[in-house]
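Changelog note: in this version the structure field was regenerated for every chain. One regenerated record is shown below for reference.
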Amino acid sequence: MPIPSQRDIYWPLLELISDGKQHSVRATEPVLCDRFDLTAQERAETVPSGGLKFRNQVSWARFSLKKAGLLEVPKWGEIRITALGKQALSEDRDDIPSVLRKSHGGEEKETDTCLDASGTKSPRCDKGDEPDSRTPEEQIAAAYAQTREALASDLLDAVKGASPAFFERLVVDLLHRMGYGGSRQEAGRAIGGSHDGGIDGEIKEDRLGLDVVYIQAKRWASVVTRPEIQKFHGALAGRKARKGVFITTSSFSSGAIEFARTVDYRIVLIDGQQLADFMMDHDVGVATETTYAVKKLNADYFSED
């Protein structure tokens, strides 16, 4: 039989975790393999990048269900069904994809329906026999965006499940990769220990140390509100500093954003999504799985003029 699509996995995966307990992601895969009666050859089937095809399909199914609010990640590497997920099992057991669309306000997302683990659009997603109108380049771009979104979600889950000390080291690694702090050793000394007056650390803005950037790093789940930014502003003023970065794994309230925008000091706010983007862009906590080179005809080579 062909490897089940992520659509085929939605219901069995939710049913598997329907008891409301935390389940290891690693432990769910063999159970689902048995559920679909996959042969050893099918379990070993890979996508072009080299990853296991069924594992990728399960991963995409988890991502879609998590994005729709049907399951959650209480800690890194574990999943748990939500109240909405239980409701979907009882009311829409034969059409989980419709629940995914409802959770997105009626808009059908490409993530939930059309691209499989290898980035290929499933024929079932086309309307009738209508071919995909996008160019191959557009399809590649869409698949890349989808993969990046899923990776950002996994990164944030991993960061939120880490210890405060690990988060501080992550901040050091990220800022150093972005060009701050001089040497890695200097950057490590500059952050992770001061915790003085609303400042978690400081780091050189450039290798010469012509200016210093002060840092506040919060591994929070709740929204960072205006009073927290006001405290940070006060701490900067106490040090006669004019530049600060406030990093959080969550998000900022509109009041916090407005305050940071209007104060005389330069305060940069980095929320969870931006943090994940920076980590991906600067190779912190991620590894390149595969690389595809998209080539085009070199017209100059064939020119005989």
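Spot check on this record: The radius of gyration is 23 Å. Residues 13 and 32 are 7 Å apart (CA to CA).
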